[in-house]
Amino acid sequence: MSKVVVCARFRPLSSNEVRDHGNGVSIQRIDDESFNFKDEKDGDLLFSFDRVFYEDSAQSNVCEFLASPIVRDAVNGTNGTIITYGQTGAGKTYSMEGPSITECDDQKRGLIPRVIGGLFEIINSSYGSTTYSVKLSMVYRFSNSCRLRFTWRKLGRYHSTAIFFDVGMDLFDLSKDNIQIKESKSQGIILSGVTEIPVLEPAEALQVLSKGITNRAVGETQMNMASSRSHCVYIFTVQQELPVQKRTETGKLFLVDLAGSEKVGKTGAEGKLLEEAKTINKSLSALGKVVYALTSSPQSKLNHIPYRDSKLTRMLQDALGGSCRMALLCCCSLSPSNASETLSTLRFGARAQHIKAMPFVIPSEDKTSKTEESNVPDKDEACERILNKVHI
Ligand SMILES: Nc1ncnc2c1ncn2[C@@H]1O[C@H](COP(=O)(O)OP(=O)(O)OP(=O)(O)O)[C@@H](O)[C@H]1O
């Protein structure tokens, strides 16, 4: 498995979508890795990802493919990140949490309860003298907060401007509303003062995280937020005590439920909300740049990874590059009414995967028979076509 895995997931059509637009969908399945996206403007576009989860995919399959290797690594002291990306309503939270974090219907359980189950299963089945401890933290927003306001007088009139910063808040202690990100030589990136709650078993971990989810709603009400757009980051810290080697090893696992990726104009935001939406989009774009830089070939000139461009990427710095595994799940709606948002989500994922998954227009001579399997190019052929012929 490569260190960066990019997958697409399509949620089923909602009853409203079926009522308003019928059962039509914007993609045509090819196989577990590829599909055609039907674009009114550009014609058919072929996308390939490490795995595509269609609307009938099971939560357990998503977790098995995306999270299992990352969980194993975290228990062994290597950091990792799982990110859900997509527009509002595309299925990010459903993939992360399931219908609810404490949902007991096994089939519907999301990544978080499965990751917790997996972590403790590995820990409890380990033998030898190594002892493990698991701590949880939860931070959110990383969008702007007005911290400074300047007022000055010019030509007899008062002018005022606000400076916005992206800030992280502690979901286990709402009084900590500006978590600082620091770097230490021995520990790498640290979230200064963030609450870490030790947990001993899965049920306790789920209770703790569900409190954080409740606090998120409380925090948003307290701040009178009209928008629920915010990134939510679940942090699992797994520490191993190795008495023989007389040392400890720490693996961190970050599960990131990103804010909706819709364009600022579409949100209809104004004033403070507009500033907030811009900050969110800036951090999403910073994340895209970081992932793009990480997946560039070593020969590429793109050897600078711009972690410092946003607090979100800075916080994830130790869990994205190097030997860390990262999984990006691009969540999409199947409905043709959301086609442009779906296309932009897919392009984000394709950029993260680079050339091996860049979308391309099937050349016109292939279009008449594009549905026949024999005419669907494989990935190598796709790369060749992109390199030689097709520019998007
Ligand atoms: N794979 C799926 N199977 C069944 N229902 C799903 C699936 N994915 C999403 N849904 C449903 O679609 C709706 C929107 O999903 P969800 O809340 O996860 O979107 P989101 O991307 O997290 O949106 P937001 O950015 O606003 O939080 C929910 O009612 C959810 O239950």
From TrEMBL:
Kinesin motor domain: from which residue to which, for each copy? 3-355
Q: Which Gene3D superfamilies does the UniProt record give? A: Kinesin motor domain
Biological process, per Gene Ontology: microtubule-based movement
Nucleotide-binding found in the keyword field: yes
Q: Which residues bind ATP?
A: G86, Q87, T88, G89, A90, G91, K92, T93
Q: Which InterPro entries match?
A: Kinesin-like_fam (IPR027640), Kinesin_motor_CS (IPR019821), Kinesin_motor_dom (IPR001752), Kinesin_motor_dom_sf (IPR036961), P-loop_NTPase (IPR027417)
Question: Has the keyword Nucleotide-binding been applied to this entry?
Answer: yes
User: What is one cellular component GO term in this UniProt entry?
Assistant: microtubule
The GO terms describing molecular function are: ATP binding; microtubule binding; microtubule motor activity
Q: Which UniProt keywords apply?
A: ATP-binding, Coiled coil, Microtubule, Motor protein, Nucleotide-binding
State the family named in the UniProt similarity comment for this chain: Belongs to the TRAFAC class myosin-kinesin ATPase superfamily. Kinesin family. KIN-1 subfamily.
* PANTHER family recorded: CENTROMERE PROTEIN E (PTHR47968), KINESIN-LIKE PROTEIN (PTHR47968:SF17)
Q: What is this protein called in UniProt?
A: Kinesin-like protein
Which organism is this protein's natural source? Carnegiea gigantea
